[in-house]
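Action item from last week, closing it out:
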Amino acid sequence: MKEQILKSGHTVLLLDYDGTLAPIAPSPEQSALPSSTRSVLQRLSRNPRVTVALISGRPLADLRQLVGVRNLTYVGNHGLETWHRGRRTSVAVPGRSREALSRLRPTLAGLVKDVPGARLEDKGLSLALHYRLAPTSQVARLKAGIRRAARPFVRSRALSLLNGRKIIEVRPGLNWTKGDAALRLVKRMRGRRLLPICIGDDRTDEDAFGALIDGITIRVGAHRGSKARYYVRNVREVAALLEWIATQLA
């Protein structure tokens, strides 16, 4: 892996946020990017041999605010919205999906209200049900209620459900994943001898691992059954790898 990085013409870093750059927090609002990691991202952003893109399930505005590093590419909502070179773009979401989200939102808010510690996050183009802080005894009932409420919209393909780490995402019924977003970013840079390096910790990152078959793919934490070729144990080891890349490619 190190030899590939050193010989690459241009390195494209595709990085998840929660559980990859920042430790998993009890709630999204408590997440904090370590200052040393922000510093190495700033160094990488100034390196002409490197492009850094953050691909996260978080809303685009939230992701940009949390990281706060200029000259990065930010991809939010699992690929639905992008900030690239000062311009925001988004994947076209059908009207039926937007209507379905609007109709489902109050029902899900009611379900969450009855479960202590659970919360509904409105991400604009999608909804997220967080249950990390919910009592274990109530999680199965909550998840069943969500699936039941969303079933008509999933059957009509207006919406889809995506299970993550202590979270259920309610998304537009589009065949668009982190893998599609990653491939689009890489294809934008055609003409260079590129080496994509994708690092993530969640099931949603597996789509990117599977798409980037010619790149370096790295799973953070539990890796059994992962499509990634390599793994690191935790956020600290991700930071150490980024530091090594920044130093070697300087």
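Closing note: The first helix runs from residue 2 to 7.
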